[in-house]
Amino acid sequence: MSAAAVASVMICSAGIGILGWWAWAFRPFNHHMWMVPLGLAMVGTPVVVLFSIAAASATFAVKF
Length: 64
Known about the structure:
Blueprint (H helix, E strand, L loop, with lengths): L2 H24 L8 H27 L3
Helix pairs in contact: 1-2
């Protein structure tokens, strides 16, 4: 696994952790709402980046 893939998995895991922590500790009181968009950004951004890299490498692999 490349370093970028490992970093992406770690960032996604941190985002999932933030969302889980918020849901467990703060959701009943609707406190710390800033954690929701931060967690979603940390989960979604690496997925989009890795998809973009995979699509770009697949495009370059096709010879016309």
